[in-house]
Amino acid sequence: MGMIRCVFTYKERLEKVTPEAVKNTANKYLSGVNLVKAMFVPGK
């Protein structure tokens, strides 16, 4: 039942995420050492 519960509680858990939490996590994991910048240019 664990995985099914995740599907039904996803929206509720997502609504609890704050901008500050996203910023803190980004600062923790996306330092200049392990960040890759890329640009996608679709073909014709």
Structural class assignment: mainly alpha
Rg measurement, Å: 16 Å
| CA-CA gap between termini | 46 Å
Number of helices: 2
* Element string (H = helix, E = strand): HH
Beta-strand residue fraction:
under 5%
**Poorly predicted runs:** none
Tell me, briefly, the overall form: extended
Return the average pLDDT rounded to an integer. Answer: 86
Q: Approximately how much helix is present in the residues?
A: 55-70%
| DSSP summary, beta strand count | 0
Task: Kindly report the oligomeric state of this protein.
Answer: single chain
Largest sheet: none
Describe the structure.
By secondary structure, this protein is an all-alpha fold. The protein has helices spanning 2-15, 19-29. It has a domain at 1-27. It is built from 2 helices and no strands. The model has no long low-confidence stretch (mean pLDDT 86).
List the helices and strands and how they pair.
Blueprint: H1 2-15, H2 19-29
Task: Provide tags for this entry.
about 45 residues; 2 helices; mainly alpha; about 55% helix; extended
Brief synopsis:
The chain is mainly α.
